[in-house]
Design a protein that fits this description.
With about 130 residues, the chain is mostly helical. The chain has one domain. It has four helices and no strands. It is globular. The protein starts with a helix and ends in a 6-residue tail after the last helix.
Length: about 130
């Protein structure tokens, strides 16, 4: 139960970073492709924050060296591509359906929540597994 609560809090932090980055990007640039650029920026910052938090507080992962950490981050990112489809699907879907920034962000939050649940399962099985890679 403690792990689920910790994971939920860390996912909330990463969600705030993601959506906050999107909002800042939208305010800074409102031109062509601004929606896509803001979502990509939010996804990137959220990914980095979530990796740092997960490896330390969820999986207690300690890389052997920088190359090992880089390889682990790459694998973490690849697992994230699967869940990013869920997140982006909800965010773009809500944007298309409701055509408001607030509902788009709500779609992003829903997509991130579902995606983070799936991501935990993938990361536990493929990224931060107990046996040495």
């Amino acid at each position: 139960m403690k792990l689920a609560l910790t994971y939920s809090i860390l996912a909330l932090i990463a969600t705030c970073v993601n959506i906050g980055t999107q909002d800042l990007a939208n305010r800074a640039y409102e031109g062509e492709f601004s929606l896509l650029l803001s979502i990509v920026a939010g996804t990137g910052t959220g990914l980095i924050v979530k990796y740092i938090l997960d490896k330390r507080y969820i999986f207690s992962f300690k890389a052997r060296d920088a190359a090992h950490d880089g390889k682990t981050f790459l694998l973490y990112t690849l697992m994230g591509l699967i869940t990013t489809v869920i997140f982006w699907g909800f965010e773009f879907g809500f944007d298309r359906l409701f055509q408001t920034r607030e509902m788009r962000y709500l779609g992003g939050i829903v997509g991130l929540a579902i995606g983070y649940y799936a991501k935990y399962r993938l990361d536990k099985r493929f990224v931060f597994r107990s046996d040495p890679a």
